[in-house]
Amino acid sequence: MSQDFRLDNIGMVNRNKKISFTFNGKKYFGYEGDTIASALIANGVHLVGRSFKYHRPRGFFGVGVDEPYAILQLERNNERDPNIRATEQEIFEGLEVKSVNCWPSVNFDIGAINNFLKMFFPAGFYYKTFMWPPSFWYKIYEPFIRMAAGFGEASIKHDKERYEHKYEYCDLLITGSGPSGLASAYAAAKNGARVILAEDKPRYGGSLLTSDVNIGNQTGAEWSEKIITELKSMSNVIVKNRSQVFGYYDHNMLVMSERISDHLPKTQKYLPKQRLWYIRAKEVLISSGSIERPLVFGNNDTPGVMLSSAAKEYIKVYGVLVGKKPLIFTNNDSGYETAIEFKKNGVNPLILDTRKEPSSDIITEAKNLGIEIKYSYVVVAAKGYKKVKSADIAKISDNKKDLSNIENIECDCICVSGFWTPSIHLASQSGNKSEFNEKIDAFIPKKSKQKENTIGSANGKFTLEETINEAFNKGYEVSNKITENNNKVSVPTVVEKKSTEHDKFWCVPLPKGKSYKRFLDFQNDVAVTDIELALREGFRSIEHVKRYTTLGMATDQGKTSNLNGLQLVSDIENKVVPQVGHTTFRPPYTPVSIGAIVGREVGKHSKPTRKSPMHEWHEKNNAVFVDAGVWLRPRYYKQGNETLFEASKREAKNVRKNVGVCDVTTLGKIDVKGPDAAEFLNRVYTNAWLKLPVGKARYGVMLREDGIVMDDGTTTRISDNHYHMTTTTAQAANVLSHLEYYLQLVWPELNVNVVSTTEQWAGAAIAGPNSRALLMKLFPNTDVSNEALPFMGYKEADLFGIPAKIYRISFSGELAYEVNVESDYGNFMWEKIIEVGKEFQIQAYGTEALSTLRIEMGHVAGSELDGRTIPHDASLEGLVSKKKDFIGKRSLSRSAFIKPDREKIVGVVPLDKTTSIPEGSYIVKDPKAKLPNPKLGHVSASCWSVEYDNPFSLAIIKDGKNMIGQKLFAMSPLKNKTIPVEIVSSHYVDPEGKRVRA
Amino acid sequence: MLYIFCPHCGSRSQNEFAYGGDATVKRPELNKEISDQEWNNFVYLRKSPRGKHLELWHHISGCRQWIKVERDTSTHEIFKTYKADELTE
After folding, report:
1. Domains, chain B, ranges and CATH?
2. Which of A226, A338, A485, A505 could be A308's S-S partner, Cβ–Cβ 3.0 to 4.6 Å?
């Protein structure tokens, strides 16, 4: 298809590179540098979608991020990208896009019937139309509305693209590379500041690319090219295009999304698709420019009605005509600039100016070019369904209330200009309270709350001379606060055509007998009547009106609609706009892909994975791993076709019968050193520590100040002033912070230091009746007899030339030792243990067998010390000293903690000795009691006892100590099970603890 | 994200720190007889002022020192930071 609307001699696209793409399955051509919008318009395509509610035809309204209409679905490299803006997405060879919110096609859309049923879809229709009968909502209405609503379809596959995060610091961040951005960046960079200049579009220069101005002796476009080239060459400047600063957060942290590969057919190797920048800037200059405001008239959403600035940019940047018979409808001089560009490119526009007798340089130039102008004229309504074919125009009275001389004239596009709205979003996000400026009928930033300044048209400065002067000064002033270089560059002279005042008129009245829809919000189909209805129904606050009518919501966030909405509310309410106020601007300024926000923290990468030095051995020996905090631990070692249940039973049995070895590297380890270490431990733990001799370990329990058990573990006195503390795997980090808190803030007088040594030691627990025999072979030069190394003893020894530490401690309840060596020797130690242990039938065991062993011994762990239990509940009250004070002691005398029927840990055995009790089951007296059935407690851990070959569980139940021997029920509503059980002692195996001392 | 001046390391982003609550709370001395009410106030009661607040932050991904930060809870302005053992104004 030929590009009928492409101009030959104007524009910045690369004519030497033709690019083909498909839209709704049909092939089109454009040039490198085109957006989907410019390429489609060049091909005469204006119908690209259907509106949200009424399914009215949708074309293009703008030329950038403010676009409310042209939302498309993109397929790129087998990935689906919903809600991309056709005005922003650059084309690449093979790009595929399609329309959304239409079925079966954009040309013939069944949903358009809504347009004729619009009386059923007033503002807030979903609050009132589909209410009866109530049962219909869930099955009929909601699925129907869900199917009918929404734009793009998100992919449900994993996104295979890569996204990155980057942290950056700078003196000055400048958002937008228009005249003010370039000028301030240049002034600041020359003054030695570290500058980041971010531009959302692919091309730098902003309005300089399209306006007819001179700076120095160059055109605006030439000057911007020169400045950007120089900035790029400076080492203190980062210049980024396709980069949107979308959020302004606390302490001058701004977030920017850089679209690195979206304009390419495929993401290049070693590059991400998008990169999210977290920028901490000492100062921020907001130069985000302004967005043209629409004028409101009948059917103003018809494809072919668009912003006049957009029409100008399509001509000057893309060399594309949006129409060949344009009607320019304006209340200010900007419309004339567009008309002049049409005229210069051989097209005759007609200007309708709402003003009576304006005069300025620009208007004179238009007249001199022979452009036809009608003053005090308005567009009443656009005609044509899928594209503008003509317009009803009329003369408007001086009071702007009455229309006369209504006539229909032919046109193929209507370019509207209702003056300019500064983009104050970022300033507002920073906490800057805006103020309404009567002169420009818009809000501009007021007093800075953070270190930011807004410059240029974003600050309501609409002449280039003012903008350039302000920007050079601010760039210098702000940078000099930081660099103090006093290096001021001279401000170039500016030549521009003078313009005159705009007309405050913005909404064309309806002619008698007509009920044209006049749209305010083009993305959500919010018309003048919807706002009127909301106000009639009593909504007053602008925030409520917004939510009821959906004005200013969705992907464009009302960039083109907000101010006209406010104008309407204030007109109806007889208020002025500042009284109504504006809704809150929140990040993001433009939609950001979830992928960019997530970055690399996907799946397994969302937290670090820690592996023990023996990890490879576990892998080689068919370990099945489980996440334990941030660690990967072997759950069991699979032999043949074993299940988890079979393997863990085998491993646990072997510990009870022969000997087993378990990787305990993951246990938290903390070195506690200093002359006051014993005193400190005495305050941290509930039991006494002052008399622990060197070479001995002790089990300890520590509490929070509220009396709840925080953690448990053994601590060994290595030398006079040196203790080796162990914590549970899960609590290691918390315990260290806890100790640091007390040492630094509460008892700074104690001379103690703590440091984590978790990763410095590899640990192996050797447990079972054969463990001493194995130890004797591992450490032939060390006396490991019961006398020399008794239970809770500690010895340093030599493991085939490697220094090792032996702690005689036991979690399994068997005769057991934990051997530690420096991490680098961990694998060596492990392989030696396995090798030497062969003759004693050694087997490695995982966390599942470990659990079984500790549960049937009644040893508590995380499932009992769950943040709700005090020492008594876990049968640890014997470890609570009555003689000394310690952290949390005062709480233990709380009435709830000392009541006679306080919860206590017990053992639970099913009466049939075969049914396993699900963890989390409730223990109740009567399974048939009226609901809610009063529960006595819950099952905290379950296992299959290898000692007795039947199920065994631990439970924490009310008055546990008096419940032994009772027949009760374990109920699991989740698993739908009721199991008759008997309550027994929690110490199911070896209650006297003979084995550990053997 | 806040930018917190650590007196030991300099200015660092909030994600290096863990919040530690009210810094004006003083733990009762060990072995001191105190009423249930007093103990309850220490363990559970915290003011949640709007405006200036002296609070604890723990530089867990940095120097691991607990520091005191004087911050405005409504604007996030940080006025001053102190070392753990420094006297506050």
Report:
1. 3-26+36-83 (3.30.2270.10)
2. A338
